[in-house]
Design a protein that fits this description.
Blueprint lengths: L2 H9 L7 E6 L8 H5 L1 E3 L3 H9 L4 E5 L1 E3 L11 E4 L1 E5 L12 E6 L2 E8 L9 H13 L15 E3 L4 E2 L8 E2 L1 E5 L4 E2 L1 H7 L25 H9 L9 H13 L4 H14 L5 H20 L11 H4 L3 H7 L5 E3 L3 E2 L3 E6 L5 H13 L14 E5 L3 H14 L8 E4 L8 H12 L7 E5 L12 H19 L2 E7 L13 H5 L2 E6 L7 E9 L8 E12 L5 E9 L2 H4 L6 H10 L5 E2 H12 L3 H17 L3 E5 L2 E4 L1
Parallel strand pairs: 8-13, 16-20, 16-21, 17-18, 17-19, 19-20
Antiparallel strand pairs: 1-2, 1-3, 3-9, 4-5, 6-8, 7-8, 7-12, 10-11, 14-15, 21-22, 22-23, 23-24, 25-27, 26-27
């Protein structure tokens, strides 16, 4: 990378402002003031050619951009900090990966973090002065009594260090550069172990810092668990440990577990120190989430990029499922359907089967915790879960977790709140259900960019962080009931799609069709019956009830067409007990409030249909049993 390209990354669009550079061949320790004067940098073609040609000179640039009628490198003309740079810093003491590293002399490095031009902190000269004082106290920059570190010079990647040494001039080397690593000032400070929150007040920076940023892991741990409570420190060590572990590629859930375990090893017994300790433990998930910006990009060894088909086949020979052949492990999918098709009831049925370790639709299902985002409130979702467990004769499972606070997952702070809350869960969910897309999405459903960003956020912040699957519940459009409403990016960016339809407009039944299954063959259509479950009375003394979704394989043979009489009979026969035709007639009469003759005809027609569907068989002259 040449100097002009590097400066473009540093300064970006200068507008009516300017940067600053200087070049000279003399020993910097002996250079006079005129050599250090330099000139305004406006990235003209002539300037770019000249700065790129001076490979044998000392080449420096100013860390800040300036603005004003008078053109000068003075604090009075400061506009914004463009790069935060540490001098002669220890690479092993960083909290995360910087933007660039320049070897300025043998074994000596300048380490820089590019600063987001839109960050308001980067335009606060008083705050930046305090940062420079803190860095000087930590030995990261040279102390400057005049306070000019705000506009100080640092080296460019191309050029020579002509300080006198036996080996002669040293050619500067750009050892690392990643243009994607552009930080807020707060995050850049974290790279160097500086806690910006402590510097935002107008208080004087203390002469003695709690912890040197170059502290190794043993020192950080010692600060957390030292028996001498007066010497114990929490915030800075936690900040640096979480950043360090994240920058080295440790998974977020593992980092939370490791750091929380370290804190447990030094838990105080009682008193104010215990309360301070508890408050810091609660912060750990938030610190880990905030540190994810330092996570390294996936690194590949050259030999890993190209492999034989057999090697790949051995790695991906078996697909892992949380519901065999239906819901893949660590996948993001969707259940979609028109209003009134019972899609949420079916999603709850799936979740309850998982939480209770019961096979769903006759398929092996992993027993695991589930998390359900009920954006429309908690009362309705609880009744449905309560009804499902009552129907199955089970106590409500402790492995069903709910979010009843409405969250817009396209709003960064609200997505972060969800992720932080998930880190604090006692268990790790295997499935997260988001009900519904429209209630958790603030963009344009017809925009491919908006939809792709929404799904990408769920993929990155939920699926990848927690190693779980996610299902988004969504509606169909008015003119296209066979696909999700909105952009076709949904179909392209999801791993599986399950469409829910009503095979009979008059019956409480549903048909689920696998519209897409990226990692396997599509299952045949699945059919469900909605059964009414009374739940006693509510606080006002009125009857409370809910529907319960039950898988009904017999409906497939009947083409999904069922009458209310069919459903009564199937419910009676579901237990496997023998049921007489007289009991069938009584049940239909009671359930539908029809006459005895109507019930008799209903039994006769329903039995014919269920026999043809292979659902029932005779168990006597006037008795039947589930086949």
């Amino acid at each position: 990378m040449d100097n002009s390209e590097f400066l473009q990354h540093v300064y970006g669009d200068l507008g009516d402002g300017y940067g600053w550079t200087t070049s000279f061949r003399a020993d910097p320790n002996a250079a006079d003031v005129t050599m250090w004067g330099g000139k305004a940098w406006r990235a003209t073609e002539a300037q770019q050619r000249l700065i790129n040609s001076r490979s044998e000179d000392n080449n420096f640039f100013c860390v800040s951009a300036m603005k004003g009628k008078e053109i000068a490198r003075r604090k009075a003309h400061f506009d914004r900090l463009c790069v935060l740079v540490a001098d002669d810093a220890d690479m092993n003491g960083l909290g995360a990966h910087p933007t660039y590293v320049i070897e300025t002399s043998p074994g000596k490095y300048q380490i820089g973090c590019l600063i987001d031009a839109d960050d308001p902190d980067a335009r606060d000269p008083a705050l930046i002065d305090r940062i420079m004082q803190a860095m000087a106290l930590d030995g990261l920059v040279k102390a400057d009594a005049s306070g000019n570190n705000l506009i100080r010079y640092v080296r460019l990647p191309q050029g020579a260090n002509t300080k006198k040494r036996p080996s002669g001039a040293f050619a500067a080397q750009l050892r690392q550069f990643d243009a994607q690593r552009v930080y807020s000032l707060e995050d850049a400070c974290m790279v160097f172990g500086i806690n910006l929150d402590l510097l935002r007040s107008d208080t004087v920076v203390p002469l003695r810092r709690e912890l040197k940023p170059r502290s190794n892991a043993a020192q950080l741990v010692e600060a957390l668990v030292t028996p001498n409570l007066d010497e114990r420190s929490y915030h800075d060590p936690l900040l640096k440990l979480t950043a360090r572990l994240t920058s080295e590629g440790v998974r977020p859930d593992t980092t939370v577990e490791m750091v929380t375990g370290l804190m447990q090893a030094g838990k105080p017994v009682e008193g104010p120190e215990l309360r301070r300790w508890e408050a810091r433990v609660q912060e750990i998930p938030r610190l880990v989430h905030g540190a994810q910006k330092f996570a390294p990009e996936p690194a590949f060894e050259p030999g890993e990029l190209i492999r034989t088909a057999n090697d790949v086949g051995r790695e991906f020979e078996d697909i892992d499922w949380i519901v065999d052949d239906l819901i893949p492990e660590q996948a993001v999918g969707m259940i979609f359907g028109a209003s009134g098709t019972f899609k949420s009831f079916i999603a709850i049925d799936l979740c309850c089967h998982m939480a209770n370790g019961m096979d769903f639709i006759g398929k092996e299902t992993r027993k695991a915790p589930v998390l359900y985002l009920a954006s429309e409130g908690g009362a309705g979702i609880y009744r449905r879960i309560q009804a499902w467990h009552k129907h199955h004769g089970l106590p409500i499972s402790d492995d069903i977790w709910l979010v009843t606070t409405p969250l817009i997952l396209t709003v960064k702070e609200q997505l972060e709140a969800l992720v932080t809350a998930m880190h604090r869960m006692k268990v790790k969910p295997a499935l997260v259900v988001i009900d519904t897309l429209s209630q958790t999405f603030a963009g344009d459903e017809n925009s491919s960019n908006d939809i792709a960003s929404y799904i990408r956020a769920i993929n990155t912040d939920v699926r990848a962080q927690f190693g779980c699957s996610a299902i988004i519940i969504h509606h169909t459009g008015h003119n296209a009931s066979d696909r999700p409403r909105g952009s076709s990016a949904m179909m392209a960016n999801l791993d599986f799609l399950l469409g829910v339809f009503k095979p009979d407009p008059e019956a409480p039944t549903a048909r689920v069709m696998v519209s897409k299954q990226k990692d396997g063959d599509k299952l045949e259509d699945m059919y469900f019956t909605m059964e009414h479950m009374p739940l006693g009375v509510n606080k006002k003394g009125k009857p409370a009830s809910s529907l319960v979704s039950t898988y009904n394989d017999a409906l497939r043979a009947a083409g999904g067409k069922t009458s209310k009489y069919d459903i009564v009979l199937m419910n009676l026969l579901e237990s496997g007990k023998i049921v007489s035709e007289d009991d069938m007639r009584k049940a239909i009469k009671e359930e539908t409030q029809c006459s005895f003759d109507t019930a008799r005809q209903g039994v006769r027609r329903s039995l014919m249909k269920l026999v043809n569907a292979g659902y029932v068989r005779r168990a006597g002259a006037d008795a039947w049993k589930k086949a």
